[in-house]
Amino acid sequence: TGRRPRIFVTRRLPETVEARMATLFDASFNASDSPLSADQLVAALEGHEVLVSSITDRIDADLLGRLPAGVRLIAQFGNGVDNIDVEAAYRAGLTVTNTPSVLTEDTADMAVMLMLALPRRLVEGAGVLLGDEAWPGWAPTWMLGRRLRGKSLGIVGLGRIGTAVAARARAFGLSIHYFARDRRPPALEEMLEATWWPDLDAMLGAVDIVSLHTPHTRDTYHILSGERLARMRKDAYVVNVSRPELIDEKALVAEIRSGHLSGAALDVVEHRHGINPDLLSLARENRVILTAHMASATLEARVEMGETVIVNIRTFMDGHQPPHRVLPDGRR
Ligand code: 8YV
């Protein structure tokens, strides 16, 4: 049925995804392993209708204003779309889609993995046998961490991923608390035995672990501000597999340094101007675990993300509402 959609893909994707895209579409790829600059992206999009973007593409109002007129769809390979000015895209008549759901379980696994790794000193323990000094062997007070069972978990944002984290955390004996603007359905609360806190400050003072599962928006920037981190319980932990912008990193470092917080496990950190050296020092001292934005990095998730991008493109190009359209706040 007619011409094949002309798509441009900004990053290399798993082989099977690229192959399917090349079969279904008139597809061009950025063949390098690095993101493109704004100028390169604008030039590359000439003659294309669809931009397949990733978190490493900054699609702001300025770039949107410079896009070739034929571009009609921005199909993000990813769940979060905070790299895209969705409001400006909407006003420019462009459709934006994302790939939710398929990465939920893997991302939740990563959050729980970090939640376990931190108090049980996994990274530190794994390093001991590889160190320069010979391991002296077991002792009764060797490598003592803290028990997870019986602690309380405060989830910020009980959406798809937050819910999947809660379900796992229950199996580890954590009690579930959540902050969200709107209370979630009673059936979900009952299933998770979850307690709703309409006031984030109040929840922060009541839980042992805080895990962030909310997108980065204007409203959530530094949602864990210095003031809020100071409100957390002594010896509490922070886990973040969402976006670095949710935490005031400097304040987090200070709260760990002062001995108020026990530590943090972060899959996402600010790195545009290099990673905060104080955060790296804390990681070297094993008070912080830093991983390299890999919560959805399974082959399965990345292939399914690619397939979701394909479905979004096909339905849109066939003139239908794509299944995962992203609208600006307050629009339907
Ligand atoms: C991706 C993510 O690695 O989907 C997201 O929001 O952070 C990750 O799953 C990345 O965003 C790909 O664009």
Automatic annotation (TrEMBL):
Residues 112-295 form the D-isomer specific 2-hydroxyacid dehydrogenase NAD-binding domain. One of its GO terms (cellular component) is cytosol. GO terms for molecular function: glyoxylate reductase (NADPH) activity; hydroxypyruvate reductase [NAD(P)H] activity; NAD binding. It comes from the Bacteria. PROSITE patterns: D_2_HYDROXYACID_DH_3. Keywords: NAD, Oxidoreductase. This is Glyoxylate reductase. It comes from Devosia enhydra. The lineage of its organism: Bacteria, Pseudomonadati, Pseudomonadota, Alphaproteobacteria, Hyphomicrobiales.
